[in-house]
């Protein structure tokens, strides 16, 4: 991190809920659901910000105010002290969220996690009770 750490409070805050497709706008999502990604983590967001050549820091002890069980956030710096951008393609908070949401599904740790859930998808016989309810 080559940026000034003492001014970290002035950096942009990015909570994982902002780009989560599982959340509604009322719950805190800030971008369109079609452009958002599913259940991002702070580590994935941090890795995406470093990939975009932006100074960033994880604050794992912080919680999202509307959902205090959701821990962690990422602080990101978009502009240098002289006003020039670190990444010319990203000039606003909204553009940052869109770029990060685009990169998170391609994260190396995420591609390994998504493979296992496809077990017994072929169907087979039903188990358990079924049918009409008796009145």
Order of helices and strands: EHEEHH
Measure the end-to-end span.
68 Å
- Which structural class should the secondary elements be placed in? alpha+beta
Range of helix content: 10-25%
Major β-sheet profile: 3 strands, antiparallel
Query: Mean pLDDT, rounded to whole units?
Result: 84
What is the overall silhouette? elongated
Arrangement of strands in the largest sheet: 1-3-2
Description:
Helices cover 20% and strands 16% of the residues. By secondary structure, the protein is an alpha+beta fold. It has a three-stranded antiparallel β-sheet, covered by helices on one side. The radius of gyration is 20 Å and the shape is elongated. The model has no long low-confidence stretch (mean pLDDT 84).
Supply the key terms.
single chain; 135 residues; alpha+beta; 20% helix; elongated
């Amino acid at each position: 991190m080559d940026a000034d750490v003492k001014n970290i409070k002035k950096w942009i805050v990015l909570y994982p809920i902002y780009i989560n497709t599982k959340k509604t706008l009322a719950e805190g999502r800030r971008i369109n659901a079609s452009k958002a990604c599913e259940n991002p983590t702070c580590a994935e967001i941090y890795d995406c910000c470093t990939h975009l050549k932006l100074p960033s820091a994880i604050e794992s002890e912080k919680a999202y105010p509307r959902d205090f069980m959701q821990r962690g956030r990422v602080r990101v710096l978009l502009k240098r002290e002289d006003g020039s951008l670190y990444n010319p393609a990203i000039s606003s908070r909204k553009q940052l969220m869109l770029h990060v949401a685009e990169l998170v599904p391609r994260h190396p740790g995420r591609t390994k996690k998504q493979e296992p859930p496809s077990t017994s998808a072929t169907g087979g016989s039903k188990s358990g009770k079924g049918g009409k309810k008796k009145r």
